[in-house]
Design a protein that fits this description.
By secondary structure, the protein is an alpha/beta fold. The chain has 23 helices and 17 strands. Strand 8 and strand 9 form a beta hairpin. Helices cover 42% and strands 14% of the residues. 41% of the residues are buried. The N and C termini lie far apart (113 Å). The protein is elongated and about 105 Å long. Helix 6 runs parallel beside helix 8, helix 7 runs antiparallel to helix 8 and helix 14 packs across helix 15. The strands form 4 sheets. An 8-stranded mixed beta sheet has the order 5-11-13-12-14-15-16-17, sandwiched between helices. A 5-stranded mixed beta sheet has the order 1-7-6-4-2, with helices on both faces. The protein has a two-stranded antiparallel ribbon with strand order 3-10.
């Protein structure tokens, strides 16, 4: 009996040894760990995803073995009969992605052509297998719409396309000729690469960009939001190294070149690119060494046909705009313009925020004194970030010399707008040339009002009252002054939004600091010559008497004074009755009755206009256009305009 008890422990130990330890153990994980397991992959963590590791274990491998002998691992994945097409292709895409990342990481700024080619080939294989998974397996993308794995593989494709195309472009820039009118894609291994840019709209006569910058690599301070559209393709910015303000530098005095046109198309356009592999079925896609780079304007193309399926095209609508502002140096140039610096602006320019589209309505923005397109940083971005508005509107920004008197800027901006419309739409029948909306802040609002007003004979008669003329002298002066004193509403404009606009001037322009700044303002030499000739003639007509201030050419600050004759007269000019107008006004004087309030610079009494379709007063200082409530109001007005278009 005792022997039986002595043998029992030995029997139990033998049983345990034969059976081994418990086959399954259970534990728990946190929500963060759960998400990391489900969504972590080689792009986000540097390690292969759980899905890829599962597939490797099925074929008797693992991440370490695959890293040590990559070629054997990839061959095993490609040849194993125990995997579905989706498992095989998604795992191969991620494994190739790991190879490409390692090749890029090992490179330097002086990366050799051979190592650059190795990396690009790995990116192409990543994109090829992701493309095959997405479009050439039994299930379609819509069937996997809620699966994390499809989202991961889509990201592999997009990132690989981004890296392959930018890598090819860098190689071309390093080895090709920038002046070549028909550049060829650099040779990469056995690949035959074609390009299709028929759906891309770059600025007219623009050279090849100096850079193709991944939009995802850019971050911005000063912009509240980055607006994108999820989908397929690499989001890029085509950038030119030339600074925006280089164009402001005047040429030599004897420069006989024709003047530059007043319009500038977006110098940093958004581009979305795809890699399309040649083949009609899975086997052909996996064997081919022919592919096509297809580039699109994401403003015009929202969906593309891939393998017989319509899929959304990825897009980034903010990065090109942000890069333009960051590289423009507008703030410094605006000050140079105000004080008559050599490199300051002398004529208005109109910047198109996207390639011209005849089928989109046009919004024209005019900044205020000593400012620039930077005044609209978030306004333009938020408007273009609204899907409904982005599909129906395009934004033009007027950049003008704010040292010039209001009558001169009114004439010059009108001319610039008219020339720009005539260039892009000679017939004047496109949607872009009709029902235009003007949005002006501060002095830009005063100019916007002038552009939708009729001078009738009021300004000219006021001049005659002070400077009596007749005969040939009157005819000569009328010819010289007619562009500035006689004008009619721009017929293409149907709507206007006035923001913190001193329509009746402001007493702020009369204080000591403002007068000191006004005395520092210098007008461009060409403008001074033209105006000095007019002022000398007026002095001969009515010379100043002793003790009376001699006639001087007013500048922009003079014109914004509530005592200025021009602003007082122009505030009463009749506006085109067809134009619907709205007012957005800041109030930085809490506790004061609205009629007596002010934004710190412009009083409510000067900003308010009777007959407005709407008026919104916002607790804000003078830069009210950047207030989120003001931007929401602008978006509301633009949406409302789409619902009730006036007749042309």
């Amino acid at each position: 009996m005792r022997m039986r008890f002595l043998c029992l422990p030995a029997l139990l130990c033998t049983a345990v040894l034969l059976a081994g330890c418990a086959g399954v153990k259970v534990g728990s994980i946190s929500p963060a760990e759960y998400l990391a397991q489900r969504r972590g992959d080689v792009l986000t963590t540097g390690e292969l995803s759980t899905s890829a590791q599962e597939v490797l274990r099925v074929i008797g491998s693992d991440a370490d073995l695959c890293r040590k002998d990559g070629q054997a691992c990839r061959n095993a994945l490609a040849e194993s009969s125990g995997l579905s097409d989706e498992q095989r292709l998604s795992a191969l895409s991620e494994v190739w992605l790991q190879v490409a990342l390692a090749a890029d990481k090992g490179g330097t700024a002086a990366q050799s052509d051979s190592s650059a080619t190795t990396a690009i080939e790995a990116w192409l294989e990543t994109a090829r297998h992701a493309y095959a998974y997405l479009f050439y397996t039994a299930r379609k993308p819509r069937d996997r719409a809620f699966e994390d794995r499809q989202t991961q593989v889509r990201d592999y494709y997009n990132y690989a396309v981004q890296q392959a195309i930018t890598g090819l472009f860098k190689t071309y820039r390093r080895t090709g000729s920038p002046s070549d009118p028909t550049p060829e894609v650099p040779q990469v291994g056995d690949w035959r690469i074609e390009t299709d840019v028929s759906a891309l709209r770059l600025p007219t006569s623009a050279p090849l960009p100096d850079e193709l910058i991944p939009a995802a690599s850019l971050t911005f301070s000063g912009l509240r939001n980055t607006y994108r559209r999820d989908g397929f393709g690499a989001e890029l910015v085509a950038a030119n190294a030339k600074r925006t303000d280089d164009e402001a530098t005047p040429g030599p005095a004897d420069d006989k070149r024709p003047p530059r046109p007043p319009y500038r198309e977006m110098p940093f356009p958004a581009v979305t690119a795809l890699l399309l592999f040649d083949g009609a079925n899975l086997d052909e896609i996996l064997r081919t060494h022919t592919l096509r780079i297809a580039a699109y304007d994401p403003y015009r193309t929202a969906n593309v046909q891939l393998a017989g399926q319509e899929v959304p095209l990825a897009a980034n609508f903010t990065s090109g705009y942000g890069l333009w502002l960051a590289r423009s140096d507008f703030a410094l140039q605006a000050l140079r313009s105000l004080f008559g610096g050599r490199d300051g602006l002398t004529q208005p320019r109109i910047y198109l925020m996207q390639p011209y589209d005849p089928n989109r309505r046009t919004v024209i923005m005019l900044h205020g004194l000593a400012s620039s397109p930077e005044a609209w940083i978030n306004v333009a971005n938020e408007v273009l970030g609204d899907e409904t508005l982005r599909r129906r509107y395009q934004i033009w920004q007027v950049y003008y010399p704010t040292n010039a008197p209001l009558p001169i800027n009114n004439f010059a901006i009108r001319e610039a707008v008219t020339q720009t419309l005539a260039h892009f739409d000679p017939t004047g029948k496109a949607e872009a040339s009709n029902n235009i909306t003007l949005i002006g802040h501060s002095m830009g609002g005063v100019l916007s009002r002038l552009m939708v007003s009729s001078s009738e004979d009021k300004l000219w008669e006021a001049l005659l009252a002070s400077y009596p003329m007749q005969g040939a002298q009157q005819q000569r002066m009328e010819e010289k002054l007619a562009p500035y004193l006689r004008f009619e509403p721009l017929p293409q404009v149907s709507d206007a939004i006035f923001i913190a606009s001193p329509h009746r001037g402001t007493d702020f322009a009369n204080n000591r600091v403002s007068r000191w700044v006004a005395n520092l303002i210098t007008l461009p030499v060409a403008m001074l010559g033209q105006l000095s000739d007019i002022s000398r003639e007026l002095i001969r007509i009515a010379p100043s008497t002793q003790g009376q201030e001699p006639l001087r050419i007013p500048n922009s600050i003079d014109n914004l004074s509530d005592r200025d004759p021009f602003v007082r007269l122009s505030s009463g000019l009749p506006m085109n009755p067809r134009v619907r107008f709205h007012s957005i006004i800041g109030n930085d004087t809490p506790g004061v009755a609205q009629a007596l309030s002010s934004d710190g610079i412009v009083p409510y009494a000067s900003s308010h206009l009777d007959g407005a379709a709407s008026e919104l007063v916002i607790p804000s200082a003078h830069s009210v256009q950047e207030n989120p409530l003001a931007i929401l109001e602008i978006r509301r007005i633009l949406r409302e305009q789409l619902r009730s278009q006036p007749p042309r």
